[in-house]
Amino acid sequence: MKKRQYHHSSSLQNSSPQEFLSSATKLDLKAKSSKRTLKSLIHSIPSSSPLSSSLLPSLHTFISDSILSFRNPTHSPPSKKPRRSGRKSNKDGEDDLDLHKQQHSAEKLHLLAHVAFLCVSHPKKVFSPLDLLPSVQLLHDNLVFFESDSSLLLEISNLCELYWKENLQGREMLISQSLPFLVSRSLTLKKKVDVHRVYALREAFTLFDFEDESIEDLKMLLIRTVIAPIYLKTEDGRKFLGFIFGLSMQLMKEALAMIKSQIAFGRKSVLEAYGVILFRAWKGIDGVLKEEFEDGFLQGLIEGSIYANSRVLAASVRRVLGGFVSQRITDGVEKLLFRLAEPVIFRSLQVANSNVRLNALHLLLDFFPLEDPDAMKEVKDTLLDKQFFLMERLIMDDCPDVRVIAVEGCFRVLHLFWEIIPSSTITKLLTKLFDDMSHDICNEVRLSTVNGIIYLLGNPQSHEILKVLLPRVGHLILDSALSSRAAVMDLLLLIRDIRSFQFNKVVDLDVLLSTLANDHSQVAQKITRLLIPSYFPSKVSIEEACNRCVTLIKRSPMAGARFCEFAMLEGASPKSLMELVRVLISLVLSNEKLHADQNEVKCLFAVAFNGHAQSSVLNICSAVSPDDVAGLVEECMSLVTNCRGLPKDVEMQAKVRSAHRLLLSCGAFDEMFDSLIRLLQKAAYHCHVKFGIEIPKQRVSPGKRKKCKSSVKISAKRKHVGGRNPTTFEDDYSIAVGIAFQIKDLVVSEDSREAILGSQALELSFLALKVISEVSIEHCISCEYMDTSPVLAYSGLALHMSLQNTSISTNDYGSKKGEGTESSILETVMDQTVDHLLNYTSISNDDGSISTKERSMLNKVKMLTAVLKLIVDSIAMGLLSCIHGRCLNFTSAYLKHIIFALEHQSSEKLQFKEDELKDIFLCLKSSFSYAAKLLNLILCDTSETSPLLQEAFDLVNDMLDLITSIEMHLGSVFAAGLVASAKSWLPDLILALGYLCMLKDTQVASTYITALDCIKAGYPSWPIILAKTEFHEIREANVEEVDDIFSKPEEEEFCVFKKFMETIVSLLKGKFKILDAIGVILLTGSVVGLERKDFGVVLGLLHFVCVKLVGEEDREWNELDMMLDFLPAIYHQIERGIEEQSDQNARQKLCSARMLLDHVWFYHIHETGRFSAI
């Protein structure tokens, strides 16, 4: 085989150049072996071979012929007559032949280019590069014609690149086409290797005349590299971008303008990359370019960072300037920053605008110390004093935000430049910070003071003076802000580990223990971490550690309890804690005041002096299951039955839950449940007596049930917990509320849920809760003491009964007498529960149904939210069927009721307490999320056979109306909270809003017509609000006097809703089908405005549709068929309105509205012919 290859190689070398190239062009370059063979053939040609002189002219001829064949393919007569085909015309056949010929020529050129590459790279330089240049230049000059063949382009660019790298004669003739190709390739493929190749050829770009118009395409490619991520992320890319600024004044200006436009939107990494690029560009240019760069662009950046209208933008500009700040030790940089910043920065620190002062302060802190490196020492000292004077002034600024940054900046400057700052300045500055700023009225300023001290401690030179000053901030451990108290604890933890400091000299130990006993867990845990080396150390014996902890407990019992609570979290071993528990129990039981006949467990419970301690005792007993717990069982029964006020008493809730666990662990759960049910039945009976509510028939009474065995005995007097009758219905009801709260709680836990669902008394509890829930809903407005706990317990039981297929045996469950059977009730328990609740949850907007009492409104909202939660949970679990329309109607009615109630309370000027208002809003926020989830569930269940219900469209309109109503009556803060919960459901809201209009071209087109009729008949308020905000924006853009605009607050009170709609628009971009549907709804609103003569609404809605909803993405509405179908009617109505209106203001609004539609109207008249001008 090797002999054959050698013979073939030898024969080719001895052949003519034409034969050599003809044989070479038959090779397939896609095969690696062919490339190796060709390389071996050419690189083995010696200088004595005739091919060394004759091959290059022949190569030029071959290349010329192949290029001519590629650009003008001809057909030679086929050797055989082609068969006729009815499927292809002769022209199609000729086109295929041309394409085949062109592909063959491209493959041939690819191989010839590779031959040229191998000739240039010949190890012994046998071939003259100057002789090869005509061939290479021919390939290069025709590069633009080979754009369809990427492999050929790459081969030719490799050849041109080799000429440049080897500094071969004529290389400047091979860059005009190859360089744009390489730049374009790097932008398209986004590979680091291509960026590296472009950077390696950077000097070639200096040969271009960038002022010539013919270079425009290359200039645009270079501008694109400025925003290309691959260039910003790679080191070679950043170096190349820094290089191109020196190519031309115009190119530099355009590149700088491109960077400037990206600053507002760039991420941190992008902005930092621009900083590095700009610094490299500045270093690489000189003369007029440098002057323009410094006095034009950099000066503009510095001024922009000060006068930016948003803090985010100012921070972004400073991040770019950070490329120079980080290199200030480089020669010339510090002088440059001083020259550009000094004229504006000191003046800006003293202006009236607090935003400008804040931005200037940020810049000063970045540039500190701002000084002229060439100035005399006296001048520098004077300038430094000026900067400290301004910082001292700014820490007392009227604006809290300025004070926060000034305090942080002062500590930062002291930390970094302690050595160069005069001691008198340090003392003066620290005294003001410790004495004044630690007492500032703003929480954030006090917090920044503590955080600054923590940062300053990182400089050991500050420790001596801080040792004296730190006690002055000790009072912040009692600060009203949790963040400040937590920061003080971080400070104490830090100085505990510094040998020369003692934390108890900063904050007294008694104050620490008081804080540990009463403060938030976040602070208490940090205090435990601080004290654990002293009061429960791991480096001493367990006995000694326990003694120290007992000392702490005796000194402050509550602090000791909190200390023990967090001890394990802070590293105490379980073994040492168990020993501590043993020691503590021994101490408790040794108390001489305890009666000798009391058992140990009851003793523990008796000496527990608060609810938290009693709960802990019960938890211990339920975990270790002591033998003698009978006494505690009676205590537990008393706890669970005397439960008035349970929903609002957190400490009592913990005790009751502990009692549940103990009763469950010792087998007394059934007796407890019986006692609770007797109290529920008593309350249900009193509901019947007071309100005439019918009590369902019961098959089994609790007295006749089979008794369960218990591991403990309960005293006879405890078995009849209802012996002492409450004197009023309200007392009975409050106990029933506490029991309902317990049942709701019990069905959440798996063990107690199994016990309840397996109880023989389940039916009795369910029916009693049914009656009490009915009363709670019907009379929640008239009786302020009504609570949602019975409704939540009733719905929770129904939900878990349905999941467990648990049935009830009454036939009086929400059906007419004699109609129900046990099996049917088993199948529809959730349907009937929801049906029952909906029957008794009447929602009316008559004036009489709106209570004038704020508390009653809160009750109603809570009840409706509880019912809505049950509906959504049931549908989500697949337990509710066939009443989707009714559920949607209920939710819509609920939201309409809230909107009406908000309007009513606004007109009546009701004064809600802050807590009540927050509770109402939390319910509304939850209800909004439930309504959105209901839409999501129904949308997921939508199909061609089961289209979306009209009620869903109504509901989403009511939800949008609710947002505007809350912003109008409760303010933007509450509206922003509601919008925050709505954002995760935005796709569902948008789809539900536009779905019916999308049905236009389907079999249910009548639904589309109904939807539009619905919009016209009962038009929602949100499009009118939207139109008002847009109209205000139009006026603001056209009115010169700004004060006149802001003198009309009613026209700018919906900023939250405006931002919400802008978010919707951003989601709709590119989704033309749903955008089309939403557009139709808004266009329908403009028709309503025309009919009502409200031309401001018409103009506002059309402005939103044309400028924001559609915008520049599809100005001609080519993808918006439904909107185009709607356009003629509205356009002609506007024209008629203009003719009919005599009022100049109204005519002006209509003319402005028509101008918005003119572009798309005339486009489809003259370009597409869709509309007629007549």
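The above is record 1. Record 2 follows with the same two-line structure.
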Amino acid sequence: MAGNDWVNSYLEAILDVGQPLDDAHARPSLLLRERGRFTPSRYFVEEVITGYDETDLHKSWAKAVATRSTQERNTRLENMCWRIWNLARQKKQHEEKEAKRLAKRRLERERGRREVTDDMSEEFSEGEKGDMVSDVSTHGAKTRLARINSAESMEIWANQQKGNKLYLVLISLHGLIRGENMELGRDSDTGGQVKYVVELARALGSMPGVYRVDLLTRQVSSPDVDYSYGEPTEMLTPRDSENLSDEMGESSGAYIVRIPFGPKDKYIPKELLWPHIAEFVDGAMSHIMQMSSVLGEQVGGGKPIWPSAIHGHYADAGDAAALLSGALNVPMILTGHSLGRDKLEQLLKQGRLSKEEINSTYKIMRRIEGEELAVDVSEMVITSTRQEIDEQWRLYDGFDPILERKLRARIKRNVSCYGRFMPRMVKIPPGMEFNHIVPHDGDMEDADGNDEHPTSRDPPIWAEIMRFFSNSRKPMILALARPDPKKNITTLVKAFGECRPLRELANLALIMGNRDGIDEMSSTSSSVLLSVLKLVDKYDLYGQVAYPKHHKQSDVPDIYRLAAKSKGVFINPAFIEPFGLTLIEAAAYGLPMVATQNGGPVDIHRILDNGLLVDPHDQQSLSEALLKLVADKQLWAKCRQNGLKNIHQFSWPEHCKTYLSRITSFKPRHPQWQSDDDDGDNSEPESPSDSLRDIQDLSLNLRFSFDGGSGNDGSMNQEGSSSMDRKSKIEAAVLNWSKGKDSSRKMGSLERSEKFPAVRRRKYIAVIALDFDGEKDTLAATRRILEAVEKERADGSVGFILSTSLKISEITSFLASGGLNPNDFDAFVCNSGSDLYYTSLSSEDGPFVVDFYYHSHVEYRWGGEGLRKTLIRWASSVNEKRAENDEQIVTLAEHLSTDYCYTFAVKKPAAVPPVRELRKLLRIQALRCHVVYSQNGTRINVIPVLASRVQALRYLFVRWGIDLAKMVVFVGESGDTDYEGLLGGLHKSVVLEGVSCSASNALHTNRSYPLTDVISLESNNVVHAPLDSDIRDALKKLELLND
């Protein structure tokens, strides 16, 4: 039945809605032929047409029965029956598969918790075994929040914030974002999230202690959209200028900053933004660096003011915020808004699309991985409701509510968590603006006139609604929801129609969106609306139920006022409500509520205490709750008063107060060389990194072995004591020496041009990041690249960086075997990005010196010994399951490991689980790290979560001001599992054709999403060149060479 797309929608509605409207006609069986008595015509007339109002189905059925041929008519109808049965079967198969998946996931979670417990050296306390006191209050409905005086509390808090100069960065990438006249609903990407982030930025910019707020988004200069979306900067005007701080400065306030990335002159949906995230990260990093310096000059005493937090909204911005957090070493916050795993499950349950089709359409697996990375990095995850935590975030590998409470209990007791980390889930409901709202205190008896304003007229929408009522003075039960089966409007109408006392006392107003004609509505919406109309007719509710065809967004406040004026009730009977913003809006106008007990309304009711919660499936419970509120005037008045008294807790100032209180409790994180630079002498004023510490104040002058200072077993077997003592001593020595307190050390006679690493003085940087099978091929390719720019290398305009999975001692052997000099390179990114070395400027320091501050930059959430034990246990399990004759497939390579890289040697790569499985196992156990399969799958490097080869390049930009746009990265056609990160961003890339590892394709086919979801194949920053071609031609195409 090609072309009948409506069939799927009505079949899905039939199976999802449940029993037909008329229970007398209900038949439980969907079998095609039940003991030979089945007749298609009777089935569709009684079961479908009579039970469900589906216009398109009725037309199709009418056409079928009008067919002259009896056989053809029955064939058509029977085919439709088969479609129903087939969809039911598909859903059953999905439910069975989903049950198996959930059972497997439950076992994985339980195994992970057991292993975490075994790793802990002491028994859990009582607080760790169950919910904390604060957690119990979030689950039970009996606990009430303490009443507080909003004005007094806010004033005390504001006085405490005086003197703070916070810089906050919010990120929301998709949709069209501007401060005024937002085009909400223009497309699926420009919706509630756009309004939320703009209002949040505006509100934060007006809060005491906040100096500047930047809302970063995409710059869109397309003829398809308004020119305002192409403006680089837009200031957000505060709503309430009276509350602005007196300490406003030149760059203070809230701004929308639009970063250009992705296709120029083209507005694209969010699903197509993923390959361009790295480009945004580089552009945003440049802006933040510049703004931090500007703010430092204005209010920071010359020292940069780094963001107190970077807040990502949705998966794409969360992925970007995680990379920015790592590049700048500042805290990160995440708000998911809508979660990928939850959407994937809902789409699979519908049965229309396979998982592959869903991924192709929505890029869902790339989205989920972005959310998992954001959870790995976030200090805090903000949610609107407890339901979002319990039912949505718990679907992720990186978050386990039970384990999170246990780890939090240990932290409070100052007990080691053995390298485990879990972000704090914080429920902060969205804010609202209440300044313009004036609750109505009058009655319907006052509607005929207004003594104070005799000439004022009632809003037109009032007349549009009241024309439906035969007695418009009765209290009005108001429901404001689109005609969707999930909103459960039909159950509300049934409850109203079957409760005579309720019908006698109240009217019912159903505001179900806008419509011109029922035939023009979607099949699902028209089905719901037709059901409502039939119920109105069935219960003879004419004169008691209103269902206007049109209303404007600006009419909504007046609708709330009308309901409050009539002493009515607002109801949300949805089967499940993720948050319930309309409940807050109604409470602000003085309306008590009756709401579903599933989802966000539970949290809202706990705070407002302004109504009753009901089971949306229980029709009698719903009518009893409505009758109780309408009939009992004292209860109505109490609920109204409670709502108005507590509504301030949903205001923007209250939201921002909670938000900022959480942020200021974070452990400060920012580039370490900035905090140590008390008396540093800055030089080279023409450099973009004037404020950065010169090389003599860096740990570059510390003598380290080629093994990175971790060659003995003792330093690896002790998680905190020896490594931390060693680190503290080194930090103290470096700081004292940099301040001239270490007279025994001779500074040498470096010229001005030698006071910074050579990499900082280059005009262009070439990064060699080739992942070959063998050392011989790598050497040959490296020589070709060096020879291609011999002229520029000789005059010092081009510098080289070697980026590899090797350890520094292996690099020494590699260079020696090929006759290369360490001084041919300015820097070495080692161990897949966990270590950074520079070429030594002094013979007494050896050929290499380590950048110690890079370690402090990437060590965030490094698992240490707890991670090491878990990895060894994993390797043992792999050896037991897949080895033959006691062969060791995976073993810890002690001699190749360092303080920030645990390296495992792999003898049989095909026998080792894919990288995503190991990453999943570690996330389930709350271990945050970056797993890299390298060297043809024969080596596994496990490094800090914020470390990688591409993040090391971003560090060079932050530390030394190296222009990423003047950096070119040489890669092969494939490589290690971190290969994807080397091809995106502002830097240029040369893909050498024919260069790859033989097993790299197998490594990358194990990813959960295609490479095209990460890399833009149409980028002008990427060129392809055969290895045997003239590499200079490729560099000319990238405009890095002119001759």
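The radius of gyration is 32 Å.
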